[in-house]
Amino acid sequence: MLKRVLLWVGLLLLGASSYPLSLGIFPVLVAVCVARKRLWQTAGVLAIAAVIAPALNILLRLALVRQVAPAEDIELSSGQLLAFAGASGLEHLVFACTGLLAGAGMARFWPYGRIVYVVTAYLFGLMALFVALTWTAWAGQIDIMFETLNVSLHDQAKRSGAVDLQDTFDKLAWIRDHKASLVFGWSFAATVMGSCAFTSISAYVLRRYFGHAGPSGSFVDMRPSEWLVWGAIVAALLCFAYQRWPHPAISFVAWNGALALSAVYCLNGLGILLYGIQAFRPGLLIFVLFLFVLVNVGTLPMLMLVGLFDTWGDYRRKIDAILAARQGRDRPGGDTV
After folding, report:
1. What percentage of the chain exceeds 90 in pLDDT?
2. pLDDT in tens, 275-298
3. Are residues 314 and 229 in contact, defined by beta-carbon separation less than 8 angstroms?
């Protein structure tokens, strides 16, 4: 009992004092509490995330800054401190609430994939709304980032004597000019990958420390809907259409959609790869050789293609069939070759 109490206290203190790591710790704690139907513990974790974490965050930042700068340079009004605390508290609360969704799904033994996509929809929806409402500021920050990167590349080219960097600058300029067509797709990709990590960690904690069944299945079993392939087809057609009719609306839908769907199918391909490794348990030499070939062929494109064509191939079922045939052959009285 004392060990468990100390573990919870340590996690809460770590979460309250370790921004941005705290944005990932509190959702896991909330998910565990909700899945175990500990309502008072859930309320306590949410209160710590919304109140104590921002306060500790401010105190730690002020203490750190005062060690490296004169006190008169960092004087802040009470209004500024309250505004910062409110924004930080809202940020922590928004992320912590993902644990409410995931924990409710785990309590009902939802499939792993359904929990991931519900959490992704929640986080991405809020993020997309925030970016859309503050697009001018976001666009300015992105332009500054690319300008800084261009200056850095110019300096490196002068020091190294490289002269043929025009192709690199052209690509960076294209990305900067099409930032609205890429930022939402990249953000969705990051969100769905983060949701997978969060769901896997929460499920592990529940199963390892509390004996809870967690979600139905795991990452290796997560498979996108077969209907999603029509979205991939539409995105591909729009990318081709943009080459002929370079309209901003076509670019926005085509490239953001392509990036988002690529992330989904890459994760599906990775799940199939891990599913096969768990099933066949290859030796170290074969495993290293396979990774060498995969890296040289192109890991992300290969995973994406495998994940996409799984819509028709259903590779996990084929792996199960091969494994069942092998086990049947190895049984006494089975067929031998």
Report:
1. 30
2. 988 888 877 777 677 777 776 767
3. no
Give the dihedral sign, CA 96/101/102/106.
Answer: positive
Q: Are 101 and 118 a contacting pair, CB within 8 Å? A: yes
pLDDT at 61: 66
**Nearest CA-CA partner of 236 in 219, 250, 216:** 250
pLDDT in tens, 110-140: 999 999 999 999 999 999 998 888 888 888 8
Structure tokens at 334: 């089975």
pLDDT tens figures, 186-216: 999 999 999 999 999 999 999 988 888 889 8
Residue 230, CB-side half-sphere exposure with 13 Å CA sphere:
3
What would the 3-class secondary structure string for the chain be?
A: CHHHHHHHHHHHHHHHHCCCCHHHHHHHHHHHHHHCCCHHHHHHHHHHHHHHHHHHHHHHHHHHHHHHCCHHHCCCCHHHHHHHHHHHHHHHHHHHCHHHHHHHHHHCCCEHHHHHHHHHHHHHHHHHHHHHHCHHHHHHHHHHHHHHHHHHHHHHHHHHCCCCCHHHHHHHHHHHHCHHHCHHHHHHHHHHHHHHHHHHHHHHHHHHHHCCCCCECCHHHCCCCCCHHHHHHHHHHHHHHHHHCCCHHHHHHHHHHHHHHHHHHHHHHHHHHHHHHHHHCCCHHHHHHHHHHHHHHCHHHHHHHHHHHHHHHCHHHHHHHHHHHHHHHHCCCCCCC
Q: Which residues contact 255 (CB under 8 A, 6 or more apart)?
A: 178, 181, 182, 185, 239, 242
